[in-house]
Amino acid sequence: MLSTKLTLCRPRQTLALSSREVVGNVFRVRMNFTFIPEINYFREYGYRRIAVRDADTIVLEAHSKIHSIAFLVALSMRYQPPRVETMRSGALQQLREGVRYIRGSRPMVGMLAVTVIMNLWAFPFAAMVPVIGRDVLDISALPIGVLLSAEGAGAFVGALIIAALVRPARFNRIYLSGSFLMLASIIVFSFSSLYTVSLAVLFIAGLGAAGFSAMQTAIMFTLAPPEMRGRVMGVLSVCIGASPLGMLHIGLMARWLSVPTAVLLVAVEGLFALALAAFLWRDSRGN
After folding, report:
1. Residues spanned by the domain of 137
2. Spatial separation of the C-alpha atoms in residues 40 and 62, rounded to whole Å
3. Which of 22, 78, 163, 219 has the least C-beta neighbours within 10 A?
């Protein structure tokens, strides 16, 4: 793994960064669990809408409470202005400054390479989950919604664990391990023909996704000096924007091949790309 000295986050900063992932994943679970089943089952069985609404209410209450906790944590943090004041500039100029700064830091380049890899070859698989649920697992709308929620539930649990236990010294290890775990889980999912196995595998994929998502923000935040954090995070957002290209890639593969085969090949491509990035990342040790 990459050997780099991180500026250690304070516990409250680590908790706040992880809480953002917790809140986001609660919302993902809520949307996947209720939206698809509600549309389809209300069309066929109107009384099912009541049960879905009850579940929706419970999830929304949990979402509100976690959001409130995260808000209180944010209020408890004390803002420290950057020691070096920088002149205000336009968005494009700030983006160029961020790129220029990152180019001088091989650890940051490696981390952004992993971000691009995950958004190109890992996260787009979610678009194929409903198709696999319908054509391979032969399940209806409600089980498909639960299947989509499994990955979000795993990410929710993973984010909670990270917020409670993970310390900055392990950020790099969690970042890479979570990425490998998610891609490996996607490969296993592409072979699964059993609903329960698919649920378990997607939950594990969510655990890996939590390690990747929470750590990519935390690591960039700790590596960048305060006056450059906004610019660096802007470049990170641009790298996350590679996801639409990944969607197009897996969609074309699914059209030319079967959907499970497309998911398998895309995940294998991502695994090889991630292994190469990890090798180069390790090669930068001491720089």
Report:
1. 91-283
2. 25
3. 78
